[in-house]
Amino acid sequence: MSADDAAALVPHGANVGMSGFTGSGHPKAVPTALARRIEQAHARGEQFRIGVWTGASTAPELDGALAKVNGVELRLPYQSDPITRERINAGAMEYVDIHLSHVAQFVWFGFLGHLDVALIEVTAILPDGSLVPSKSIGNNKTWLDQADRIIIEVNSGMSTALQGMHDVYYGTRLPPHRKPIPIIAPGDRIGETTFRCDPAKVIAVVETNAPDRDTSFAASDETSEAIAGHILEFLGHEVRRGRLPPELLPIQSGVGNVANAVMAGLENGPFSGLTAYTEVLQDGMLNLVRSGRMVLASATALSFSADATRQFDRDIENLKTKIVLRTQEISNHPEVIRRLGVIAMNGLIEADIYGNVNSTHIRGTTIMNGIGGSGDFARNAYLSIFMTPSTAKGGSISAIVPMVTHVDHTEHDVQIIVTEHGLADLRGLSPKQRAAVVIGNAAHPSFRPALKDYFDRACRLSPGKHTPHLLDEAFRMVNPLR
Ligand code: 0RQ
């Protein structure tokens, strides 16, 4: 049926589980049609808002369109859409920011309420009714299993050669009936290549032909190249010390330009036979796979620029032997991350001198995107690395502060902080030792005197000398101070 007819089947107040993860695999037509319907209802003075649950961020035609018409009552779990962000920060939309690996199990536990509709993009419907996923899996398996009704968008813009790349695990259970997740190497396949789908629940099938979001990256600059350089040097050092094998351990790489630059650095670095156990596979990692530097990559989503998408689509048969796409509860599963010994590399907004990290909030109150999978990986990784330019907003704000204004990753989950000025290796250090290394190695030189002055006075005047702080001035640096 048409997208408008399908959208007419979603009622006010429904919780809708939509496909989509970092701009890939989201439904392309029904959300926009739904936004039109919501706008018309509002114009008639009727209430119409829905709950939107996804894998992660989507695209303007989903998050943007629905936020613009004030159609979203509650959003979860990760978003990066400017209009959605504005609505959340204006207090006009509720937002629940949870670890990506928790979302599916929270739905199975019943923690998030009832899921009314699943709205899922797929590549194809097979004769037996099973569904070939598109370029992300996210929480789609759970949405299909848990929702009362299902709307399917079949995107003929997706290559049917995608069939076989996915691994949909059906072995999850509720406690106390859980069993070990049987992944012992990043490429292990433990599930099925398609989604099961009860045809009795399908209320609409809509045909589309549309590309994913074009997730382009800025060309590497001096800052991101310097950060990548410090990380490569550190990894080489760990290999020489016998703490990493020559082919390293499986890599997780977060979103954004710096993460992409680190992948570009690996392309020209000394390591080969690399693997990845990550959630998002971006352009830089695709290059590593295509060049043969990386032999295997496991993820839940492919998030590419338009150029990389063309390269991927051309080479898909070959890439299918090297890339596995999984459900996000498995791509981000703490048990598997811990077992494999993943090297986690994520971005941050600010870190404090003791190593607590804020990945989500500007000045403690304004949400940027969300924690995404960074916590799943940081807490359970073999090496937990956070990387950032040392300053923001043209050098006026220090990314290293006395005390973070919001905590996503506590000092216990953060081992290494890297900026363009250097790398702070915090492993085995006490809080005061950590502060000296963070200020000395990672802070921008122009902010070091202010940070050192704060730390020195805190060491003298703080009532407790374990994690010295001056609580009445800890946040003063958030307002530019030089
Ligand atoms: O805003 O573009 O308006 O200037 O924050 O900062 O430096 O472009 O960095 O794109 O790498 O994003 C933490 C947000 C970093 C990201 C975060 C402003 C800065 C800019 C973005 P402007 P950059 P990146 C896997 C793992 C959480 C989820 C995660 C993220 C904007 O990495 O969302 O890791 N992480 N998931 O100017 C004021 C500061 C600031 C600041 C930065 N201290 N004060 N503004 N900015 N620092 C993926 C998934 O989970 C799906």
TrEMBL record:
Active-site residue numbers: 279
GO molecular function: acetate CoA-transferase activity; acetyl-CoA hydrolase activity
Keywords: Hydrolase
Keyword Hydrolase part of the UniProt annotation: yes
Signal peptide (UniProt feature, chain positions): none
Domain Acetyl-CoA hydrolase/transferase N-terminal residues, every copy: 2-207
Amino-acid positions noted as binding CoA in the UniProt annotation, renumbered to this chain: 254-258, 349, 369, 373, 393
Gene3D superfamilies: 4-hydroxybutyrate coenzyme like domains (3.30.750.70), Acetyl-CoA hydrolase/transferase C-terminal domain (3.40.1080.20), Glutaconate Coenzyme A-transferase (3.40.1080.10)
Residue span, Acetyl-CoA hydrolase/transferase C-terminal domain: 316-454
A biological-process GO annotation: acetate metabolic process
Keyword Hydrolase: yes
Family that this chain belongs to: Belongs to the acetyl-CoA hydrolase/transferase family.
NCBIfam families noted in UniProt: YgfH_subfam
Name of this protein: Acetyl-CoA hydrolase/transferase family protein
